[in-house]
Each structure stands twice: as C-alpha cells, then as structure tokens.
Amino acid sequence: MEEVTNRYRHNQKLEEACTVLLNEIVEDPKREGLLRTPYRFQKAMQELTVGYHQNLSEIVGEALFHEDYSEMVIVRDIEFYSLCEHHLLPFFGKAHVAYIPNGKIIGLSKIPRIVNMYARRLQVQERLTDEISAALESLLGPQGVACVLEGNHMCMMMRGVQSQSSSMITNSMRGSFLNDQKTRDEFMKLISPRG
Ligand code: ZN
After folding, report:
1. Is a pLDDT exceeding 90 seen at residue 172?
2. 15, 42, 46, 84: which is the annotated catalytic residue?
3. Of 32, 39, 97, 147, whose Cβ has the fewest other Cβ atoms within 10 Å?
4. What is the CATH number that goes with domain 63-191?
5. Is 147 part of the annotated catalytic residue set?
C-alpha cells in the first residue's frame, strides 16, 4: 500500500490511528467495507488539512496589482469546508469578504483560495474569520477589510443538542469597516441574501 499520489505521501501513522479507531468502535473491523478505510482515511485527512502546507505568498503569487480604484470590492458566497479543532468534525458554510483598496488590488480568484487555505487546517470559526481578514490586510494594506462567515457545525448538528438548523455567524472588521458605520452597513446590506 506504499503509494505516493501526485500530492500526498502515504502517511503510515495516520493509517494506524484509524485502525485503532476502528478497533475501538466497530464490532467487526475486518469486514470487507472497512479493509481499505485506514488507507482512505489517511489520504482524506491529509487533503482536509493541506492548508498547513500552503502559505500566502505561494497562493497569491503575482496576483497583486497597483490600481487607483477605491470603492468596496466584495466576493460573497465563497464556499468553505473546515474541521473544528475541538471535535475533528466538519464545519462548513459561506464566507463573504470585502476590502476597500488603498492603491493595491488582488486577483479576485485568489480570495477564495486564501479562505480555503485557512479553512483546510484545524480551526475554530472565530479564528478562521480573523485569519482571512488579517491576511488581506497584510497583503494589501487596504483602507479596510471585512470578513463574515456563516458556518454549520457538525459537532452541534449531529450530537448533543442537535440544533440542526442553527448556523453560527462570525465577523472580523478592520480599518474603515470597523470605524465607519456607513461602510459596515453598506457591506452588510450587500451580502444579505436579498442584497
Ligand atoms: Zn466542534
């Protein structure tokens, strides 16, 4: 089973960890459907945490441009999938990101990639939100940055209180989004479902 995919090396320790899990949980860990599960698990875990092996400069590359545009730029409804660090269960949802340039803009396709670099690490939604806005602030030195995340957490939905329909909303505002109520209101209006 030693196998190197194009991106992920086989990780023996993760595979063994999964075998331990199965032996603890399942009545018959040797049944057919489970035989390759440890192998698939190690691969999936590596994919879901690939963000630990990525960094901003590699993701952004050459996609920063000088530009005088100084209106709000918004990318809304960015899908993200992450793992909560408290339970190793998924949380997922949508990110809305905005900034007001201060002489520099970023290629729009890079923003979802930044969101997903941080999402593919073990996270809490609050930190994920903050890391995204901090990244844009450091890359662009903009007049302001805003990031709002709406997340559904499997650790809430599948266990305990089972509040299936509730989602969690977090936001991180910097610069003019923090200081100027009008800017913040405009952003919130533009990302609202009817905006
Ligand atoms: Zn959790």
Report:
1. yes
2. 84
3. 32
4. 3.30.1130.10
5. no
